[in-house]
Each structure stands twice: as C-alpha cells, then as structure tokens.
Amino acid sequence: MRAIRIEEIGKVGLAQVPDAVARAGEAVVGLKAAALNHRDLWIKQGKYAGLRYPCIPGSDGAGIVSSVGPGEDASWVGREVVINPGSDWGGNPAAQGPDFKILGLPHDGTLADSVVVPVSRLAAKPAHLSWEEAAALPLAMLTAWRSLLTRAQMGKGDRVLVTGVGGGVALAALKIAVASGNEVWVTSSSDKKIRAAAALGAKGGFRYDLDGWVEGALREPGPFQVIIDSAGGPGFAGLVDVAAPGGRIVFFGATRGSAPELILRKVFWKQLSILGSTMGNDADWAAMTAFVGTHGIKPVVSDILPFDRGAEGFDLMDRGGQFGKIVIRH
Q1: Looking at the 3D structure of the chain, how many domains does it have?
Q2: In the predicted model, what is the mean pLDDT of residues 262-278?
Q3: Does residue 201 sit in the same domain as residue 242?
Q4: pLDDT digit string (tens) for 154-201?
Q5: What is the C-alpha to C-alpha distance for residues 7 and 324, in angstroms, rounded to an integer?
Q6: What is the pLDDT of residues 67-93, one digit of tens each?
Q7: Number of Cα atoms under 13 Å in the Cβ half of residue 132
Q8: What is the largest CA-CA distance in the chain?
Q9: Spatial separation of the C-alpha atoms in residues 288 and 272, rounded to whole Å
C-alpha cells in the first residue's frame, strides 16, 4: 500500500509499504481522508519525543473498516468510522499514564492507504460530516474539549479568549465555546484570520503582534474568565494580565517556547489557575463526540490535498498560512 513516510529528519515522501494486517484486538481501516497536526510537522523536524525513522505519521483519520483481527466483532467490517487517536490513557482520569500513546508515533499512523488501530479506538463517523471534516475532527476537537470543559471547567457566562486563531485546536475551541453560548474573542497576527473567526461566531479579536492589545482588551470587552493558549513564550505574561480574577488559563502547547518571566504576585493575587492539558481520555472523547453530533459542529478545513501531493501539506503547515485543518484525501 501507499504511505506518506518520514524517512529521516526533514525528508518526507511517498513510499510503498506492506499492507496493514489486523491482529487480535485490532481492526484495519481503509482511509478516506487524513488530517495533519503540528505533531506531524515536529516529528518531521526531529523535535518530538520518542522519534524513530522511517515512520508513517498521522493521528487523524476517517474511513471504512476493511477487516478485524481474530475473535473480534465482524459487524465492524464495512462501517464508516472516525479514529480516536489516543490509547492506553490509564486509570487516572486527571492525567495520562506512562503507557499513553498517540497514533502516528510510535505506531504507524493515518498517512497511508490503511491503518491498524485497536478496535476500542473506532467510533461511528458523525453522519453530518464529510470524509474531510470527519478526518479533521479527532485530535483537535478532543484537545479543545478537554482544555475548555475538563480543565478550565468553562461555564455559562464565562468570557473566553482563544489565542492564535487559525490552527485546528484554536478553531475547535472557538466552535465549542460558541455552541455552548459563551462570548468568545480571539487573537491573531492577521486581520484576515480575525475576520474569519468573527464569521464563525467570535465577538472580535486582537492583534497580539501590536503594542497595546492587552490594554485594548481590558477596555473592551474586559477581562476573561477562560483563556486557551498554545504559544507560551513572551506573550504569556499578557494572558495573565487579561485574565479575570479567579480566571483559568489553559495551555496545550508551547510553540513559542517557555514564558521567560511569570510574575507570580499577579497569579496569586488574582487567584488564577494555570493549567496544562493534553489530548483527552475516553470520557472526554465520548462527551466531545456527543456534543459535536447534538450541535452539528463541523471542523474548519483549510486545504485539501490529494494523497500523491500529501507531503506538500507539511510545508504548508510550516508556513502557517492555513485557517483550519490541512486534509489529505485518498
């Protein structure tokens, strides 16, 4: 079968690999579409833990079950599914255990014609989603759900700030918060992306790359009870400033590195909670998929590439011009 494979740091391309075969407890999914995440780009760049090459990346995918392993429920065969990319969370719902894995490393991922996954990771494809939208759903929407609902405990009436709008998780957080009836604002370095976010329900946004955005946000609309961030870096201090007393700042990434200085007196005086979040457990997945179905939420798809041009998606993501998920269509 075909695969988009990372051969070594910085080198990705098409390869022929052995067909996927299910063992006991597993299923083979013939993929209709797969989506990229920054995780895949970091693996290509050699900036991720547990690297091994060559590897087939890809955590997100949707398709049709083509076979199951010995002793598994054969009724799965022929069903349209979306894949939960996380497995072996462990017994503590508060945090993943040492055996937690994300599809695409260490195990071969969804950037191939077929993928082997545990049967327990299969879920029915939401009927209102296209193949491309279904492929864009899992990792980003699950990460956003846990950040907002499990970690930040977002409630009705909370004003929410989503930073760096344009990425898959940020847009998923925007959609979840808007569907929940909350007032949502965004940040970006692009006026175009802020306008696009407003079209999806954001009340407005701020250019984080311009001086004075913190003061402007505090004037209108005022401080935020919930802040979702994936950048960190020098800008994290501004998030502390725009957080409301008792506010919760949740970060699920650190694309701009560690915060160089965190003024602790602001954190304790404002009674802030600074929370880390990664992916989600099975309860998060079940709640997220139910919410998506009830509210008819559709992930934002930025670009769709045919499989034989899928390697171009890595460069597109590296340039950062996308608004939503980059999807590779089979």
Answers
A1: 2
A2: 94
A3: yes
A4: 999 999 999 999 999 999 999 999 999 999 999 999 999 999 999 999
A5: 27
A6: 999 999 999 999 999 999 999 999 999
A7: 14
A8: 63
A9: 26
- Which is it for strands 26-35 and 114-118: parallel, antiparallel or unpaired? antiparallel
Tokens of 138: 């899992």
The alpha carbon of residue 108 and the mean position of all alpha carbons in its chain are separated, in whole angstroms, by 18
Q: Do 18 and 127 lie in a common domain?
A: yes
Q: Range of 75's domain?
A: 2-137+299-329
Q: Tokens in use for 6? A: 């990372």
79 and 126 assigned to the same domain? yes
- Using CA of residue 165, residue 150, residue 95, residue 90, what is the dihedral sign? negative
Per the document, the length of the chain is: 330
Mean pLDDT of the chain: 95
- H or E element at residue 67: strand 60-68
Evaluate if residue 49 carries a pLDDT over 90.
no
pTM for the model stands at 0.95
Give 103's DSSP letter.
T
Q: Tokens 């992916």 map to which residue?
A: 279
